[in-house]
C-alpha cells in the first residue's frame, strides 16, 4: 500500500488553540505505541503555528513533543503572554490613542493594545528551533510552514522549512517562501492586529497569519500533503442558528472586536474546508481514467476535520473570573460577549483553568472519533507491518 503524506492544519485563535493540544494528545493515545511522528507536513497559523513548530521541533519523538506541549499550556497564565499590570495595559491604550490622534512619535514605534514581550521570552526558552532541520534531514518531518500576513503587500505568506525538493510557489495573494523558521516568524504569525505588535521579517512588517488567509489548507498541499487533518477552533457556536434573539442593547466594543476576530480566525478555515469537500465530491464523480485523459491534475484529498463539540465562547464565560483585572477593565466587564459566539475573551484568556478545560475537551472529542483517526492513518500502520 502506498503511504500518503499526511498534513496537519492548525488554525489560529489565541487561547483557543489549547483545544488543539488536547486533540494531539488523544492522537498519541490512539495510535500504536512507539509510532513515529504521524504528520509529514505541518502548517500552522497564529497560535496554531506555535503548536505546530513546537511539535515539529520534536518530530523525532512525538510522545515527548506532546508532553512538552501540554506542559506549556497547562502552566500558562496571562502574564506569560502579555503584560497584565495596570501600567503595561494603560501604556498600550495611551500609545494607541496618541498614534490615532497625533500620529506615531517614532518611525518604528509599535502600535498595539498589549505588550507580548513575555510570550517572546517564553517561546525562546520553550521551543528548540535548531531541532527542526535535524528532523527534516532524518526523515521524521517533510516540512513545516508558519503563515503570516504582509501588511504592505497584503499577501498571505507561508514561510516554510522543509525537504530540499520543495520549491517556492506564487498564487494570487498567496506565496510560499523557503526560510529557516525562527522566533520572529512565530511572533509575526501570532500578532493579532492592534492587540499585539507586528514584526518585521525580510524587509516587511507581518501580522497574524489568519488575516487575509484565503486558503488555509493550501500551504500543506503545496508542501506535499496528500491527505489532511484539520484541527479547528470554531465549534458549534458558529453553526447556523434557526432563531436569533433580538439584541438587548447596542453591541459593546468587546463584542464588535470579537466579531472581527471570528471573521479573521474562523470563517476562512470553514470556507476552505467546505470548498475542499465540494471539490472532492466533484472529482470522485469523474472516473479516474477520464480525469487523466482530460489532463486534470486535481485529485481528491482525504480530509478529517475535528472541531470543538462545545461553544468555546461559553467555556470562556465560565472562566471569566480568571481574566487579569487591568484587561477586564479595558474590555468592559468580563470582556465576553455572552453565549452568542462573538466574545473576545476566548482569544485572550490564557489562564490555567480555561486552557485545561479546552485541552480536556479536545482530548474527549478526539477519543470519541478514535476509529476515524485510526482509519486516517491506516496506510501508515500497513507500511510498518
From TrEMBL:
<dbReference type="GO" id="GO:0016042">
    <property type="term" value="P:lipid catabolic process"/>
</dbReference>
<keyword id="KW-0378">Hydrolase</keyword>
<feature type="active site" description="Nucleophile">
    <location>
        <position position="46"/>
    </location>
</feature>
<protein>
    <submittedName>
        <fullName>NTE family protein</fullName>
    </submittedName>
</protein>
<dbReference type="InterPro" id="IPR002641">
    <property type="entry name" value="PNPLA_dom"/>
</dbReference>
<dbReference type="GO" id="GO:0016787">
    <property type="term" value="F:hydrolase activity"/>
</dbReference>
<dbReference type="InterPro" id="IPR016035">
    <property type="entry name" value="Acyl_Trfase/lysoPLipase"/>
</dbReference>
<feature type="short sequence motif" description="DGA/G">
    <location>
        <begin position="208"/>
        <end position="210"/>
    </location>
</feature>
<dbReference type="InterPro" id="IPR050301">
    <property type="entry name" value="NTE"/>
</dbReference>
<keyword id="KW-0442">Lipid degradation</keyword>
<feature type="domain" description="PNPLA">
    <location>
        <begin position="8"/>
        <end position="221"/>
    </location>
</feature>
<feature type="active site" description="Proton acceptor">
    <location>
        <position position="208"/>
    </location>
</feature>
<dbReference type="Pfam" id="PF01734">
    <property type="entry name" value="Patatin"/>
</dbReference>
<feature type="short sequence motif" description="GXSXG">
    <location>
        <begin position="44"/>
        <end position="48"/>
    </location>
</feature>
<keyword id="KW-0443">Lipid metabolism</keyword>
